Automatic annotation (TrEMBL), chain A:
Source taxon at top rank: Bacteria
Membrane topology field: Multi-pass membrane protein
Name of the protein in question: Trehalose transport system permease protein SugB
Localization per record: Cell membrane
InterPro entries, A to Z: BP-dep_ABC_trans_perm, MetI-like, MetI-like_sf
Record-annotated membrane-spanning stretches: 12-36, 86-111, 118-142, 148-173, 202-223, 257-278
Cross-referenced Pfam families: BPD_transp_1
Gene name tied to this protein: sugB_5
Keywords attached to this entry: Cell membrane, Membrane, Transmembrane, Transmembrane helix, Transport
GO cellular component, one term: plasma membrane
Automatic annotation (TrEMBL), chain B:
Highest classification ranks of the organism: Bacteria, Pseudomonadati, Pseudomonadota, Alphaproteobacteria, Rhodobacterales
Annotated protein name in UniProt: Lactose transport system permease protein LacF
Family the entry assigns: Belongs to the binding-protein-dependent transport system permease family.
Naturally occurring in which organism (per UniProt): Pelagimonas phthalicica
GO biological process, one term: transmembrane transport
Gene3D superfamilies: MetI-like
Keywords: Cell membrane, Membrane, Transmembrane, Transmembrane helix, Transport
Gene: lacF_6
UniProt topology in membrane: Multi-pass membrane protein
Domain ABC transmembrane type-1: 119-330
Subcellular localization, as worded in the UniProt entry: Cell membrane
Keyword Transmembrane helix: yes
């Protein structure tokens, strides 16, 4: 029961609910609008005559006898073979998350358990690397990759994304491991385990909450990347985001824009599901670095 | 942990960062002081009896290929690329400084140079978006925190969407809405009363559009961090302030905000770094005619048929220097924390 002093006056309540409502519309409406519009024809979603056409779907009705059509999705997924890009994206994301967590947990664990001065310098170096825009590195990749004939293929991009991911992964896992008491693995070492055995049998079973959170952010980084994937993948190996950018490049002819709209909705859907299931982990990951300062 | 054990644990991640971050930086710096070889020219003298001799200059394909293969980096040009028109444009700058009559004239000329134009937008974007998103994020956090428990979860879910969505996709979604045939675009046309009104047509409006996108994209991050901070707000301090008769505004100003101050610094530093690399919105909003950023210049130089590696490398090095300047307060702070330990 709130005390009288804490009860809010009506005016303040209206202000708060009004503001929250406004932010809700700003944050959510664009997504629902685009989802709705992706089932229309271009003349409805980008209506010159009357904006209500986008809601009623007048032209869609005329063309397909129904207010909704999957034509944009058919065009994007089948005609433009967007499914290839989807498969590529999931291959890239899967291997990036797997590799960067494997080597990241080892490194992060070592950083959290070693008290020497060089761990500080390694973390600072990682911070500097984290601050650099990935696109600034791309010019350095191209020549060697052309030379060794490894440009354009998925494994190269995966390794590059793993490396770009490492600084962030290290910082995050380092702080998670510091929260796991040192006594745990030290007592295992007293019992005769090597450092690796202590890690394997004592730390691994308790590290999963931190690893899952970090994995989510690695996934997001790989999934959302545009600069690196657009520059390092050949046309046939493109992931979703550069493929969508390419849809836009191929002239704004009738239908093509709707292909891009359908592709955009398709690429947003997995993120939506991700937030739905892992909201708690994402929030805890965002605040992990901050609360400790 | 022993040095040896540490080494083996750290080796895979260290190697990945060394090979794909540290070495590329070296390679970028190297490339920025080399320019592609010019074609080797040869002069051939054709002598025809009675007509006389003509000399003809052609490209010696074989020799050109040879020299390109022998030195794939190109020829050493020192800092020439940094100083050319596409980058720091020293000559043009001096010329503009000497001949411009007013400050306005000087600025106009400055903004015709690609790097300065991009720098102007990048800095404006960074230093407007960052404070704005902190204010907006704080307002959302305070408002959501006073909601009913069930509503909070829902609001957090939807608030995360603009941040989690792929930047290119997020900007496309908004771009299609503000298109003159989209829903917001047509509303603006109706408001302006001018059928030809378009956000894309003017530089100022394009910048505002990108800045609004930037705030929309990053405010959720500030919101989530501040919201978490609000959960740790000590209740007794608020109660003490209430007993002292502080108004709600005073409670926020003197209790809540000081409590959140370390988080504000954290969000500001992270966002300064991230906003400085602004790139996807420029592509998504198709705004490169009015607004370019440093990252966009690099991308543009690297893309297309002619990959201008040297030009892109020089811009990359300048961008890295910019990031280093932005980052220096963080480094100093971390160093002090470390010394304090």
């Amino acid at each position: 029961m709130a005390s009288k002093a804490q009860r809010r006056p009506l005016g303040l309540n209206i202000l708060i609910y009004g503001f929250v409502g406004l932010w809700f519309i700003l944050a959510a409406f664009p997504f629902f609008w685009t989802l709705w519009g992706s089932f229309k024809v271009e003349l409805d979603f980008f209506s010159i005559a009357d904006w209500t056409n986008a809601i009623t779907g007048e032209r869609t009705q005329a063309a397909y006898d129904s207010a909704f059509t999957g034509a944009a999705y058919r065009g994007a997924w089948i005609q433009e073979e967007f499914w290839r890009n989807v498969i590529n994206t999931f291959l890239v994301c899967f291997f990036v998350v797997l590799t960067s967590l494997t080597i990241g947990t080892l490194g992060g664990y070592a950083l959290s358990r070693s008290g020497y001065r060089y761990t500080f310098w390694l973390l600072i170096t990682a911070l500097i690397f984290r601050a650099m825009p990935p696109i600034t590195l791309v010019a350095g990749y191209l020549l060697p990759f052309f030379e060794w004939n490894v440009w354009g293929i998925l494994p190269t991009t995966i390794i590059v994304l793993v490396a770009i991911n490492q600084p962030f992964t290290l910082w995050m896992l380092h702080s998670f491991f510091q929260n796991i008491p040192k006594e745990l693995d030290e007592s295992a070492k007293v019992d005769g385990c090597t450092q690796f055995q202590a890690f394997r049998h004592v730390i691994v079973p308790v590290m999963w909450p931190g690893v899952i959170t970090t994995g989510l952010f690695s996934f997001l980084l790989a999934y959302n990347d545009f600069a690196v994937t657009a520059m390092l993948l050949s046309e046939s190996n493109r992931t979703m985001v550069p493929a969508i950018a390419a849809f836009l490049g191929t002239t704004y002819t009738e239908g093509n824009v709707m292909f891009a709209v359908a592709a955009v909705v398709s690429a947003t859907a997995p993120l939506f599901v991700l937030v739905m299931f892992f909201q708690r982990q994402i929030v805890s990951g965002l605040t992990a670095g901050a609360v400790k300062g | 942990m022993k040095h040896r054990t540490f080494f083996w644990f750290f080796l895979p991640t260290g190697l990945a960062m060394f090979l794909f971050i540290a070495l590329p930086i070296v390679s970028v710096v190297t490339q920025s002081v080399f320019a592609p070889h010019e074609a080797v020219l040869k002069t051939v003298e054709n002598c025809t009896p009675l007509v006389g001799c003509t000399t003809e200059t052609t490209i010696d394909q074989e020799a050109t290929r040879e020299i390109r293969e022998a030195q794939p980096l190109g020829r050493f040009v020192g800092l020439d690329i940094y100083l050319d028109r596409g980058h720091l444009a020293i000559a043009e700058l001096r010329e503009a400084w000497n001949s411009a009559e007013t400050w306005g004239d000087f600025w106009d000329r400055l903004f015709n140079l690609p790097l300065y134009r991009a720098l102007a937008f990048t800095l404006t974007f960074t230093f407007i978006v960052t404070p704005m998103l902190i204010v907006v994020g704080l307002m959302i956090a305070l408002a959501v925190n006073s909601l009913h428990r069930h509503l909070k979860g829902l609001m957090i879910f939807f608030s995360l969407l603009p941040m989690i969505v792929t930047p290119l996709i997020g900007s496309l979604i908004l771009f299609w809405m503000v298109d003159s045939r989209g829903i917001i675009g047509s509303a603006l046309v109706a408001l302006a009363g001018d059928p030809n009104f378009s956000l894309k047509a003017s530089t100022g409006l394009t910048w505002i559009m990108l800045i609004v996108y930037g705030i929309w994209h990053s405010a959720p991050f500030a919101f989530v961090v501040f919201y978490a901070g609000l959960q740790t707000l000590p209740k007794d301090q608020i109660e003490a302030a209430q007993i002292d008769g502080a108004t709600r505004w005073q409670q926020i100003k003197y209790v809540v905000v000081p409590h959140l101050m370390p988080l504000v610094t954290f969000v500001a530093l992270i966002q300064l770094m991230d906003n400085f690399r602004v790139f996807e919105p420029v592509v998504g909003f198709n705004a490169s005619a009015h607004a370019t950023s440093l990252s966009w210049i690099i991308f543009n130089d690297l893309g297309g048929e002619t990959r201008q590696l040297s030009a892109a490398s020089a811009t990359s090095v300048l961008t890295i220097i910019g990031v280093a300047i932005l980052l220096s307060p963080v480094l100093v702070r971390t160093w002090r924390d470390f010394k304090g330990k």
